[in-house]
Design goal:
By secondary structure, the chain is α+β, with helices and mostly antiparallel strands. About 45% of the residues lie in helices and about 20% in strands. The chain has 8 helices and 7 strands. Helix 1 packs across helix 3, helix 2 crosses helix 3 and helix 3 packs antiparallel against helix 4. About 5% of the residues have low confidence.
Length: about 270
């Protein structure tokens, strides 16, 4: 490893710190660190930089933290690199501080990039809820019947919700709009049983879960696809509604508008 260029050595050092080297290269790097005081000093500086990065989150990266990072990555006085084992001119990649700045740049970019990836990939509460409701809808399709109470009569389904769950959302009839009430069931959302109405559109089923929510009237948002199903949500009558179905997005949007209109008229 001693025949590597200065730039390759700093790259190899970063790979070593990231745990990306195999056993043979790890031993070779450790030998090099014992032999090369300058490289060992940079190793210790990078370890200190990583320790500083672990103590903060993206929201806490204030000016004092940036100053700390700059101080760690800044070039040191010449006497700190006097023992580097390279016959290079005075202003070189190593003695000019370029490799310290490069190392600091690599670590800061890795930290910020990792943080950005985390915030972009971690689902929010609505995404998790939508996923759970899609799973409930899929599970209902695999059951002997997709509802606990089978009826096209709102005066049967609504009292069942009130008796079993003590939650009574509007149960509307949308037969004239092409959506037939098929029944209702209880689903579990955040550990609480909530009502789900089931409607039929030709051979397709629509699960409409009503979650108690204090808020203003909000019209349906555009449907979005999730695991092969379309999901749509809106608010009204003290509930947040989530509709899940494999019907076309425009049909699901039409259903939501018809439901909201009929519920407002009750």
């Amino acid at each position: 490893m001693s025949d590597l260029s200065p730039r390759d050595k700093i790259l190899r050092l970063n790979a070593y710190l990231d745990g990306e080297l195999d056993a043979g290269n790890v031993l070779a790097m450790e030998d090099l660190l014992r032999q090369d005081a300058g490289l060992k000093a940079e190793h210790d500086r990078l370890v200190a930089l990583r320790g500083a990065l672990r103590q903060v989150t993206p929201e806490r990266a204030r000016d004092d933290f940036r100053a700390k990072i700059a101080a760690i990555g800044a070039p040191k006085p010449a006497d700190n690199v006097a023992h580097l084992n390279f016959a290079l001119p005075r202003k070189t990649f190593w003695t000019g501080g370029e490799w310290q700045r490069l190392a600091a740049t690599f670590l800061i970019a890795a930290f910020l990039g990792g943080g950005l990836t985390y915030w972009l990939t971690v689902p929010n509460a609505d995404d998790l809820l939508a996923q759970n409701l899609v799973t409930d809808h899929q599970r209902s399709l695999l059951a002997a019947q997709p509802f606990d109470v089978a009826s096209s009569d709102r005066h049967t389904v609504k009292p069942w919700f009130d008796t079993k769950l003590a939650i009574s959302p509007p149960v509307v009839l949308l037969t004239e709009d092409g959506f037939e009430l098929a029944g209702g069931r209880a689903d579990i959302v955040k550990g609480r049983a909530v009502p789900t109405m089931v409607y039929r559109r030709r051979e397709h089923l629509i699960s409409v879960t009503a979650i108690p929510q204090i808020g203003s009237e909000i019209p349906p948002l555009p449907p979005r696809a999730l695991n092969g199903y379309n999901v749509l949500t809106w608010q009204g009558q003290g509930f947040t509604y989530w509709a899940v179905s494999d019907i076309a997005p425009e049909e699901l949007a039409g259903f939501a508008k018809a439901f909201q209109k009929a519920a407002a008229a009750l």
